[in-house]
Write a structure and sequence with these properties.
Blueprint lengths: L2 E5 L3 H12 L3 E5 L3 H10 L16 E3 L2 H5 L4 E4 L6 H8 L8 E4 L12 H8 L4 E6 L4 H4 L5 E6 L3 H11 L4 E6 L2 H23 L4 H22 L3 H4 L2 H12 L4 H10 L4 H8 L4 H16 L4 H11 L4 H9 L16
Parallel strand pairs: 1-2, 1-4, 2-3, 4-5, 5-6, 7-8
Antiparallel strand pairs: 6-7
Helix pairs in contact: 4-5, 8-9, 8-11, 8-12, 8-14, 8-15, 9-11, 12-13, 14-15, 15-16
């Protein structure tokens, strides 16, 4: 049995806390929001973000960050990506050398272009940082619906240790050394999912969705490999797998926000309506920063940025994508004759 704290009591943090408890571990859940912790203590259910998923009576809930961090075997960092740096900074003083932190949020920091694990390593250099990602909506994990994910870590022993902690008969865990590729796939698929939602909001169909998923993973892989990620990662669970589920499911806050934008909502109005952090909005500008830094074209993500931040009509963005210069689908495939 491991002694684990989940730092962040949103839908994903809550679902993982229940999963880890059912696996026989001692679990503490922390949130900075006092009213959220009081609700969890009283109701043993996150009625706002994970309704219908009951939490055990002996699960601990607290706002005491020091008590949540000290002497724990594993810290699961589940705060939304915009709060990863500030939360890591506040945790740093309590983290011991070699303590394992598993980041489960998805995003890229806009001003630094750092992945979330890079941020944690900068703020808490004494920690051993890993990531957990894949096609895994909290609403389904909380209900015990079969799910597969990937744990990424620099050390194989760390990845295997976490694999044993998280894995059970409904939550299959693979391991990978490609932490960077895992994080980039996880962050950038949210931006493409906004595009998929926008297309849904405009009333487009399956053909459009398939095009966005297919060309979207091409963009993600192109940038990811330029940054040092591995092509195998982008064809796996945290690449095409996570992209498919996020573009297709109504559990996806990014797709839901995109649908509203396609129907004419502003980005701010859509985020207010979804009532949850829409990670793709925060990663969209960062993705364009990475595009410029590594000189990689990201046409879908570029058009999402134009809609979100420049006031471009969503329908115009689709037209811009359709009327781009003619291309070869895969320039690496040779012709028999010119």
């Amino acid at each position: 049995m491991a002694n684990i704290s989940v730092i962040g009591a949103g839908s994903w943090g809550t679902a993982l806390a229940l999963l880890l408890y059912k696996n026989g571990h001692k679990v503490t859940v922390w949130s900075v929001i006092e009213s959220e912790i009081e609700m969890l203590k009283k109701e043993h259910e996150h009625k706002d973000k994970l309704p219908g998923v009951k939490l055990p009576d002996d699960m601990e809930f607290t706002t005491d960050l020091e008590a949540s961090v000290k002497d724990k075997d594993v810290l699961v960092l589940a705060v939304p990506s915009p709060y990863t740096r500030s939360t890591s900074h506040n945790m740093a003083h309590y983290v011991k050398d070699g303590q394992i932190i598993v980041n489960v949020a998805k995003g890229v920091e806009e001003n630094t272009l750092m992945t979330l694990s890079q941020i944690i390593e900068e703020e808490i250099p004494q920690a051993e940082v890993a990531v957990l990602s894949g096609p895994s909506h909290a609403e389904e994990v909380g209900r015990g619906i079969p799910t597969t994910i990937v744990v990424g870590a620099k050390k194989k022993a760390t990845a295997e240790y976490l694999q044993n902690i998280f894995m059970n008969e409904v939550f299959r865990v693979y391991i990978s050394p490609d932490v960077l590729g895992i994080e980039l796939g996880a962050a950038l698929k949210n931006v493409v999912a906004l595009a998929a939602g926008i297309a849904d909001g405009l009333g487009f169909g399956d053909n459009t969705k398939a095009a966005l998923i297919t060309r979207g993973i091409s963009e993600i892989a192109r940038l990811g490999m330029a940054m040092g990620g591995k092509v195998e990662t982008f064809s796996g669970l945290t690449g095409i797998g996570d992209l498919i589920v996020t573009c297709a499911s109504m559990h996806s806050r990014n797709r839901r926000a995109g649908i509203l934008i396609g129907k004419g909502y502003t980005m701010e109005q859509a985020m207010d309506e979804v009532k949850m952090v829409v990670e793709g909005v925060y990663s969209a500008k960062a993705a364009m920063g990475l595009s410029r830094k590594y000189n990689v074209q990201l046409p879908i993500i570029e058009q999402v940025n134009a809609v979100l931040f420049d006031g471009q009509p969503a329908k115009q963005a689709v037209e811009n994508l359709m009327l781009r210069d003619k291309k070869i689908e895969n320039p690496l495939l040779p012709w028999d004759e010119e």
